[in-house]
């Protein structure tokens, strides 16, 4: 038995992917989300479909919560696991965590890294998939402003934090050549990510009706999961849906990569 850890499992793409994989693979699905009731209902649905699943409630909205989640996962998963980073946040306003960092910077970047470290230290991971966003090509990183959201934008902050995590995972792939790592744009999917109140939210909901369903996206991700290999050792390749593409220029800027690397390590080690 191998374990497949899926964050953000209670809604949207994560929920659809869990149901798609149920009974398809000889994996135990280790499902992570904050909503305990929704997780437990999902486990029951998966078991009815002939799959195996374990609910591990956890919170990625703080670094301390992410570390606790990582320690718990390291206790329950078996070596050779696949980790799918799917949880994400598209904020509509600037909100700071108790640590004083902008919430999306934590949820989309710092927290998954903090959670993942326990699994890496335990030697439990074999593959890591990052469900990212094509909008990372519009991202940038300002070491003095992005972590605290002083450069907050209801659009750009999502792009910025997705870029940050993608760059960090490229470093993880380089530091851990035993891992198979891929970062991908999953498609334009109709979920509640980025939902807004008022007229803007209403217009966005109309536009989303033309986007693909989470189930279509989940089938795509399942096909990618079935591939024997995603990237060469020491690298993380970039996929747009199912096709490999060169990394966007924003992800190739060496000054940005170096500054983000130093800032991230400082925040992870001092917090």
List keywords for this structure.
SDR family NAD(P)-dependent oxidoreductase; 271 residues; SDR_fam; 15% strand; oxidoreductase activity
SSE layout and pairings?
Layout lengths: L1 E6 L4 H10 L5 E6 L3 H13 L3 E4 L7 H14 L4 E5 L17 H19 L3 E7 L24 H20 L4 E6 L12 H11 L5 H12 L10 E5 L2 E3 L8 H17 L1
Helix pairs in contact: 1-7, 3-4, 4-5, 5-8
Description:
With 271 residues, the protein is an alpha/beta fold. The protein has one domain (2-270): Rossmann fold. It has an 8-stranded mixed beta sheet with strand order 3-2-1-4-5-6-7-8, with helices on both faces. Helix 3 (63-76) packs parallel to helix 4 (103-121) and helix 5 packs across helix 8 (254-270). It has helices spanning 12-21, 36-48, 63-76, 103-121, 156-175, 198-208, 214-225, 254-270, and strands spanning 2-7, 27-32, 52-55, 81-85, 125-131, 180-185, 236-240, 243-245. It is built from 8 helices and 8 strands, in the order E-H-E-H-E-H-E-H-E-H-E-H-H-E-E-H.
The radius of gyration computed from the alpha-carbon positions, rounded to a whole number of angstroms, is 17 Å
Spatial strand arrangement across the major sheet: 3-2-1-4-5-6-7-8
CATH-assigned fold name: Rossmann fold
**What is the number of domains?**
1
Task: State the end-to-end distance.
Answer: 36 Å
Mean pLDDT: 92
Shape: globular
Please count the beta strands (DSSP E, at least 2 residues each): 8
CATH superfamily: NAD(P)-binding Rossmann-like Domain
Largest beta sheet, briefly?
8 strands, mixed
Classified by CATH, the class is Alpha Beta
Helix-strand sequence: EHEHEHEHEHEHHEEH
Secondary-structure arrangement, i.e. CATH architecture: 3-Layer(aba) Sandwich
Organism: Corallococcus llansteffanensis
Protein name: SDR family NAD(P)-dependent oxidoreductase
InterPro entries: NAD(P)-bd_dom_sf, SDR_fam
Family: Belongs to the short-chain dehydrogenases/reductases (SDR) family.
């Amino acid at each position: 038995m191998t374990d497949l850890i899926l964050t953000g499992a209670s809604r949207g793409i994560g929920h659809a992917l869990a149901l798609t994989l149920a009974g398809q693979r000889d994996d135990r699905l280790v499902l992570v989300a904050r909503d305990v009731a929704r997780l437990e209902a999902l486990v029951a649905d998966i078991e009815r479909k002939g799959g195996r699943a374990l609910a591990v409630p956890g919170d990625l909205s703080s670094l301390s919560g992410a570390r606790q989640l990582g320690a718990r996962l390291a206790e329950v998963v078996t070596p050779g696991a696949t980790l799918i980073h799917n949880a994400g946040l598209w904020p509509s306003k600037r909100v700071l965590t108790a640590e004083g960092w902008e919430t999306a910077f934590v949820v989309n970047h710092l927290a998954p890294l903090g959670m993942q470290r326990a699994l890496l230290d335990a030697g439990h991971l074999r593959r890591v998939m990052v469900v990212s966003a094509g909008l990372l090509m519009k991202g940038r990183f300002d070491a003095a402003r992005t972590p605290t959201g002083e450069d907050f934008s209801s659009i750009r902050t999502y792009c910025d934090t997705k870029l940050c995590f993608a760059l960090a995972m490229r470093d993880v792939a380089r530091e851990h050549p035993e891992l198979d790592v891929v970062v991908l744009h999953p498609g334009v999917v109709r979920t509640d990510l980025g939902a807004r109140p008022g007229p803007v939210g209403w217009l966005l909901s109309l536009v989303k009706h033309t986007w693909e369903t989470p189930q279509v996206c989940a089938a795509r991700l399942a096909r990618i999961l079935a591939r024997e290999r995603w990237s060469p050792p020491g690298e993380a390749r970039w996929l747009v849906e199912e096709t490999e593409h060169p990394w966007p220029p924003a992800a190739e800027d060496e000054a940005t990569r170096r500054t983000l690397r130093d800032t991230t390590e400082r925040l992870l080690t001092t917090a």
